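A note from the maintainers: we've had questions about how concatenated examples are separated. There is no special marker in the raw files; a new sequence line simply starts the next protein. For clarity in this README we add a label.
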Amino acid sequence: MGSLAAVGNMHLTARPQQRIVELRIAVIIGLGPAGAIAALRARARGMGVLALDHRLEENPTELPEWPATYGLVDAEVPGWAEEFVRPAHEIRVVTTARRTPDFGYRMLDSSALRQAVVDAGVTLIRGTERHVPEVLGQVRRDNPGAEVLLIDCRGARPDGRELWQVAYGMVLRGRSAQVQPTFMDWRPVEARVAPASFLYIQPVDGGMLWEETVLATDQRPEDLRELLADRLRQRLRSAGVAGDVETVDTEFVAIPMGLREGSWARRRRILVDANPPRAVEYVPFGSRGGLVHPASGYSVGAAMQAVDEVLAGTTRRRALGVDMAFYLRLVGARLIARASPETLQDFFDAFFRMSRECQLAYLTGHHPLAVAATMWQLRAYTGFWHPFLRPLVTHPRAVLGLRRRSRGSATARDPLR
């Protein structure tokens, strides 16, 4: 673990010998995108911030690299985040027809966000959750009156019951790879073999990302790597992407979905075995707190939208609604995982014929009535007996998750395990 000397330096913001009784300190575990967003916004609110990540170097001066690329819907980007996302661009969707969604799409500038955290003066500590008691003990000794918020951004923990979004992508540089950005292309590249997958194309640093994605599945991600790589190569051949193209990078992404250690909208007090022991406010954030969309895999835009409320502690009044919206979209993810390729192609054609408001309510919203209204209105396009919806009648217990045991009790006892 890196030196904790910098922790005590926060008391230098006050006059010598003055006890700081109102200083607010955020201790963040995990420096992926959600942790970086939380750290940056906490500093913007005048909080002292200490961030732990096991991937940091000794005496760190920069954040760890993030292996994946991140996209978000333009409507999710708050004003403060404009400098950390690329300009919005038009996207297309290909289902049984070609469609142009009435919203822009943007890519996260990961390097800019990571650098902003460093520039903001966040104290970076190489460590894990095991080092939290030591950090909190040091904070208490140096700042006896400090109000501490522990923000857990370690990501969701797979437990064998989750769904996965799985993708294999290549960053390509060359004229034939420069095509119109595509949000989803559901046209099959082979006989309609499960699991269904779609093509995703977006501009990134160094070229264009071409990626084949399974939206939701209960299969093991590693079992799909070669299948997705082969489908992507077929896509490239069909699109005429040829010898002028250089492969700059590849990525294999496996996102566990439908999991959370608790709700990002619910803080709770926990007792940490520091020296001396102390009670602190604790909140899971990012995918740890359920901000990964259970039916799309998106999370960065949701974290940007939620972070200021989380830091202000004003989320509890709508926590029940957040829980309900999460559950409704999780039902959607289970339906996606059960659907055949032809069913998904037809279903998403119906989805992208809906109004912009309905699409965004489902893709980005946390209001249960808006999510439920969108799901209900889909019925007008598909009919209630559409194959996508039929499992609600034929397998209701599995789709509604009535056999799944809540994980809340174990997490509440020991959130830092």
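[label: protein 2]
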Amino acid sequence: MSKLITVFFLSFLLSHLSFSQASQKIPLDGNRWYQLTNAEKGLQQLTDGDLYTPVDAQYDKIIPLHESYYPLLKGESMVIQSIRFYDWAGMSSQPFVLYIIDSNWTRRPIASFDGSKYDRWVGPYPNRPDIIQLDTPATNIMYLMLVSQNDYPSEMELYGTYKAPLPLTPVVKKKNLLSGLLGINGYEWNFSDASTDPFSIDPKRLNTVKQFGGFRHYMDWQKLEYRQGSYTYSPTRSGSWNYDAIYEACKREGIPVLPCLKTLPDWMLASYPDNLKDNENNPVFYGKNLSDPASYIEQAKVGFQYVARYGKNKNINPALLNVFDSSRFTGDEINTIKIGLGLIEYIECENERDKWWKGRKAYQTGREYAANLSAFYDGHKKTLGTNVGVKNADSTIKVVMAGVALASTDYFRGMIDWCKEFRGFHPDGSVNICWDIINYHLYTNDTKTQRGIAPELKSNNANADSTAKAFLLNSAIYLNNMPVWVTETGYDINPGSPNKSIAIGNKTVLQTQADWLLRTALLYARNGIEKQFFYQLEDDNTGSPQLYATSGLLGDALNNRPAADYINQTKKQFGNYVYNQSLNADPIVDEYLLNDTGKMYVVYIPDEKGRTGVYTLQLGNADSAYIYTPTAGASEMALLKLKVNNGNIIVNTSETPVFVKPVGRSGVNPTTVTGIQLFPNPVKHTITIQGLQNGKQQHLTVFNSIGKRVSQAVTTSNTFQLNMASLPTGIYYLEIRNNNQKQTLSFIKSN
């Protein structure tokens, strides 16, 4: 008996040694898995070395039995010879299947796990649990793929041969203007009064939009294509809005516009059964294949028509265009064909195409949405017709992917891999991607406490900093640092909302909302997010506790809430600055540059407890510094001038950001002048000064940010214009002298 045991042990040892010599454990990065469903948690626990912590599978997925992908990176390869799973839970309602996808996009199952054992390792074949070696080694692997539902092994290990990937593309932080992170979401009625004259631009409403660094226009498909194949813009057949006038006003006032095409038109919605009708359904006729680009041809056609009108390309055959050119009543405005108006540079295809809360009728996987975008982008590589796809109307237009509601990189990674399979690669080896900008939404709140939280803090379901870093990292790895935008973020002010801001110390809810929104923009600037849009200009339903109903930055009678004041002041004073580096973490001290030389610092405490403190800021050879503090109810920030002492100033810090601008010598004190207006601001060419004292001699002098005189004039008129075209980009101060009185206004020169 003893001899038999010895022989068995030696045989086992030899087989084990043979296996260990021929194979190595293949390293797997748990963060690389992505899932084609609304999974908020990843699969990191599947390969973390912990045998007794199961994968958090999440039971409320919109697609329960779903695919998960593990892409191999450039230069990376593996041959899988053996597989073992740790069966901890000992149960499975749906077998877990591991596939490989080869270079021909062929899927081949190589292992399965059914949870039929307990607290032991099992091999890839449930009927042979003690055998871990594959019958045939898995080769030519481009992806690992799992098909699973809710039950996973607590650990998975692969053995074989492995070659590590080439060095990954590093994240490149681009120099993004701070003003680009101060955009706003809104609608047509933010420009016109729907109750009186929806066709005309209301100057007061336009001025409220001008306060922000961009306008994301929620644009219903129904307004553009009231009747299938017949398009309207000015007036829209639904609502009588004047899109031409809106976009012309935005162009004139320097307001970048991001139109977001969304919702189904009535003629498409009519194809759905009554119990499935929802204008936020997937943008196809009922019953269409969501994986086929041709299913989205109607949306791709309206995209072509819209961009042909508002894009830059003037060389479009008018025969390809169509408008509803009949009058509806006597004296009605009539739509006409217009080409290449040059009023928009971006377009977003849909909004939150991952609406899992509305069921499968309104949810697309990343791969399905990529098929949607392929049609919208260029008519699926120009295979769907000459009048299909926005790039076929204007090749310079930038397509922004729909902002995803679940802020996970899983979604756009699925989009990338669909493009690899069905759009292929460019001659330089890059993937033929059908969008130009990555986009997501994130509202920083906490589901346990049912409220919003400060943007720098972490909750059980939100972490703005790590989410931004994850998107930027994956953009670098897979898309050569494609720009990343955040097109929705915000806080409610109603105390019943689960996304509410809160009163902190002597600060009201409105003041906290203002602090948190401005700090959100600064957080994204620090990370390298290119653009951000706050949700939204006006409340959906003032007084309602419903989620996002009271996120407006304007109150009654279009009056600014503190958040709008803070954003407007920051944009005017520092919108042309770019983030450079961080000097301190608590308080946060970030350095910004203007034209790579002029410096500005932002200082604040990243908390929500009402903390205050002081920080010694080193300013080198500066003579003095201006301290700008955002101020509710004002058009300009409060201003304090401090003398530098031995190269340092002491900054009083709080949870409201302050902006510190050093100057070389005693300069002009930039205070606000009541009754005098400067426009446009920022200015590119000529600035108009309005509200001067008519008939009295007034001396006008323009200083740059270091106090050097760059222009001067004398006038006795109420209105005067100065040519600023030759000045470099930056902040300037206009001094107005009348007898012994001196007043100063600030403005921005932009390019």
